[in-house]
Design brief:
heterodimer, A: mainly beta, 7-stranded mixed beta sheet, 11 strands, 52% strand, B: mainly beta, 6-stranded mixed beta sheet, 9 strands
């Protein structure tokens, strides 16, 4: 069974860039889509974007100008960068695999999540 | 962008059935997926493609979808089912869309 684990700084200063990595184990990152989702404290889920193992991406339109998702197949990892962060970007960030039919995919495996706080 | 609307909360007595709705414009034409999230934990997929269950999810969890409403039904509710539940669809313009979530309380 595929397992995902997020890693990265838990504290980021305002205006800086948030960087997280998701390591995939128990399976290959090749052949699938991989996604980032976040959840502000006490609030709902927000999809950030996805990357295909080839490197092609798609982002949430509301965050598109600030989000970059990339993949490193040699390390079985994919990464998130969110630029110009503010306190509103404080959230638990999850990585997940995007499975199912390509016309209606769903998030079948999730990491445990990592809390990132934006504060000076 | 496509919007999914869920009731903020649903309460149910133990061993009764809980029904959590997810409303969206002509949602019946889309495939709906449901996630369960317990406090401090990552979401878990409980129903996909309207009514299919992952192999490790109890049969008590079922789903339906028609018209403008999709429904997650949990039969014979247990205390351990108390959680937040989110619906999700794929939309051609918005990609992955989540509902706002419903907090299920077991009385």
């Amino acid at each position: 069974q595929v397992q995902l684990q997020e890693s990265g700084p838990g504290l980021v200063k305002p205006s800086e860039t948030l960087s997280l990595t998701c390591t995939v184990s128990g399976g290959s990152i090749s052949g699938d889509y991989w996604s980032w989702i976040r959840q502000p404290p006490g609030k709902g889920l927000e999809w950030l974007g996805y990357v295909f193992y080839t490197g092609s991406t798609n982002y949430n339109p509301s965050l598109k100008s600030r989000v970059t998702i990339s993949v490193d197949t040699s390390k079985n990892q994919f990464s998130l960068k969110l630029s110009s962060v503010t306190a509103a970007d404080t959230a638990v960030y999850y990585c997940a695999s995007l499975g199912g039919d390509f016309r209606s995919p769903y998030l079948d495996y999730w990491g445990q999540g990592t809390l990132v706080t934006v504060s000076s | 962008s496509y919007v999914l609307t869920q009731p903020p909360s649903v309460s149910v007595a133990p061993r009764k059935a809980a029904r959590i709705t997810c409303e969206g414009n002509n949602i019946g034409s889309k495939s709906v997926h449901w996630y369960q999230q317990k406090p401090g934990q990552a979401p878990v997929l409980v129903v996909h493609d309207d009514s299919d269950r992952p192999s490790d999810i109890p049969e008590r969890f079922s789903g339906s979808n028609s018209g403008n409403t999709a429904t997650l039904t949990i039969s014979r509710v247990e205390a351990g089912d108390e959680a937040d539940y989110y619906c999700q669809v794929w939309d051609s313009s918005s990609d992955v869309v989540f509902g706002g979530g419903t907090k299920l309380t077991v009385l």
